[in-house]
Specification:
By secondary structure, this protein is α/β, with parallel strands linked by helices. The chain folds into two domains: 235 residues, Rossmann fold (3-Layer(aba) Sandwich), CATH 3.40.50; 216 residues, no CATH class. Helix content is 33%, strand content 20%. The chain contains 19 helices and 20 strands. The strands form four sheets. The protein has a nine-stranded mixed β-sheet with strand order 3-2-1-4-5-7-6-8-9, with helices on both faces. A five-stranded mixed β-sheet has the order 10-18-15-17-13. The protein has a three-stranded antiparallel β-sheet with strand order 11-14-12. The longest helix is centred in the first third of the chain and has 18 residues. The termini are far apart. 39% of the residues are buried. S-adenosylmethionine binds next to helix 4 and strand 2.
């Protein structure tokens, strides 16, 4: 075994040992999921093609961990081509042993927070390869202000407060990348579709040259222990002057993708959902209708504690609670078999699981006088701390729900694309007064559709059939995908779905 293989074997041993000494929660906090060596090798082997054979490499990994990318650099580039190599690691737990491991190599292993590190004059790198920590924005509290300032200083990117830590790594690294230098980012593909990714996409299109985005198939999770779908983004630090083609590849690995296609930079400027590429072509954005022309779309209600607020009819009877202070609510999509919800004489749904949500606008004193049983039930909520939950305590009356009208049309919010022959999202036609929880979206007809619907019940069915005729792929195009093949569609995204089928009916 050569010395490189020996040290790589040792590194993997250290990685396993150090990972096992931390809980999953601890590793989540700093996004500590090591990059599999096969993936690092395939990235570094691919990266070679962006350098002239005589170029000398100055390498930086801003989140180096035990050094999977550095190990792959040594394997894929001749030693005499590597001029310098630097790595940053914030956590002593990984840093101490890793620094020791690489002590006799060229690597300058720095134990520091990369996002706050000072760059010395003349310090630039022509190859940055990084798998930054995937830490979501709500775990960045307390650091966001400094991160945002440093991102602006380095690259003038003003990141949204919803951006995850990996976006800050991309932004802050900009000033470390030499002109014409190559940046390779292994990051969640989420930025390609969601709102907080806009600033990153703008950076990729306007401040540097975007060479390639390779997206792994969502079912093919790169890190056995982190549930995200990943992409490799390759850039060159060169301001674009003309339009050019960006290579989008998908599936397999970056060296042998399952498919690829070139998309013009000017087309990417217009498209908000980049994960459609390379499987699909540039969208025709000509004059078509959108669902928002016919519906106001909102999420269903967030109760703050479904187990306290949502009760089965039998339970309400058993506790002798007044049904008039409850509203019918559909069970979560998992438990709803019906796609058309019929209604009984009280406008309650005729379905197997009859559920009701507490929604009472009376004061506690009034309740105490008029409904002692409801009063005691509410007291149990106070004792269990339900009234103190974030959503509840921010409501005017903690046991009254947001005002949401029931609607004739709902759509499920989450779905899986890998279930055979089934659409990822389901539309529901509702004839009852049932409202829905936030596992659904509510489609409230706007005026021009409302009058059509009021003509007769068949019109409702026509519109429902039209919604169902929208292709699954059109919904997936607007929604977002997560690791493991899970899809979500937000109200704003569903609003943008092509609705020419409805326009044609109203014509
Ligand atoms: C996704 S892992 C990448 C590991 C590395 N590619 C490997 O496999 O050896 C991210 C690493 O970044 C480190 N990290 C998190 N925040 C950091 C920061 N602000 N500065 C430097 N390193 C950081 C974590 O401790 C973790 O080791």
């Amino acid at each position: 075994m050569n010395s490189l293989n020996i040290i790589e074997e040792k590194r993997q041993g250290i990685q396993l040992k150090l990972d096992s000494l931390k809980t999953r929660l601890e590793r989540n906090k700093l996004g500590q999921f090591s990059t599999p060596i096969e993936l690092s090798n395939s990235i570094l082997s691919y990266t070679k093609h962006f350098f002239h054979k005589d170029s000398k490499i100055t390498f930086l990994d801003p989140a180096i961990g035990t050094g999977s990318f550095y190990s792959a650099l040594l394997k894929n580039f001749p030693l005499n081509k590597i001029d310098s190599a630097t790595g940053y690691e914030i956590d002593l737990h990984y840093a101490l042993e890793s620094k020791e491991l690489w002590r006799e190599s060229k690597l300058d292993y720095r134990i520091d927070d990369f996002c706050k590190a000072e760059i010395s004059s003349n310090e630039k790198y022509n190859l940055i390869v990084c798998n930054p920590p995937y830490v979501r924005h709500h775990h960045l509290n307390g650091q966001k202000k400094v991160l945002q300032e440093n991102a602006v200083k380095s690259s003038n990117i003003k990141l949204s407060s919803l951006a995850g830590l990996y976006c800050y790594f991309v932004a802050i690294s900009h000033k470390w990348l030499d002109s014409d230098g190559i940046g390779v980012w292994l990051i969640p593909s989420e930025f390609m579709d969601v709102n907080y990714g806009k600033e990153i996409k703008n950076y990729l299109l306007n401040k540097v040259e975007l060479i390639q985005i390779h997206r792994f198939a969502p079912e093919d999770i790169q890190f056995t222990d982190a549930l995200v779908s990943s992409a490799i983004v390759i850039i060159r630090n060169k301001k674009p002057t003309t339009d050019y083609q960006v290579n989008f590849s998908f599936g397999g690995n970056i060296e042998t993708p399952l498919m690829s296609n070139s998309i013009k930079r000017s087309d990417l400027e217009k498209e908000s959902k980049w994960t459609r590429f390379p499987q699909k072509n540039v969208r025709d954005s000509s004059n078509h209708s959108m669902l928002s022309d016919f519906f106001a779309i909102k999420r269903g209600i967030a109760t703050g504690d479904n187990s306290f607020f949502i009760l089965a009819k039998e339970e309400i009877n058993r506790l002798n609670l007044p049904l008039e202070h409850f509203r019918p609510i559909l069970p979560s999509p998992r438990y709803l078999k019906e796609t058309e919800i019929l209604s009984d004489e009280n406008r309650n749904p005729i379905i197997e699981q009859k559920l009701f949500v507490l929604d009472c606008k009376l004061s506690l004193t009034e309740i105490e006088g008029r409904y002692p049983s409801l009063y005691s039930y509410i007291q149990t909520g106070i004792e269990k701390g339900v009234s103190n939950r974030y959503l509840c305590k921010n409501r005017k009356i903690w046991y009254a729900q947001e005002n949401r009208e029931s609607s004739s049309f709902y759509c499920t919010y989450i779905g899986r694309s890998n279930s055979k022959n089934k659409n990822t999202f389901r539309f529901i036609l509702n004839h009852s007064d049932s409202i829905v929880s936030n596992s659904y979206l509510i489609l409230n007809p706007k005026d021009k559709l409302k009058s059509f619907l009021s003509e007769n019940i068949e019109n409702k069915r026509l519109i429902y059939d039209a919604l169902n005729s929208i292709l699954d792929s059109q919904l997936l195009d607007e929604g977002r995908v997560y690791g493991g093949g899970m899809h979500k569609i937000e109200p704003r995204e569903l609003s943008k779905v092509n609705a020419d089928v409805i326009r044609n009916i109203l014509k």
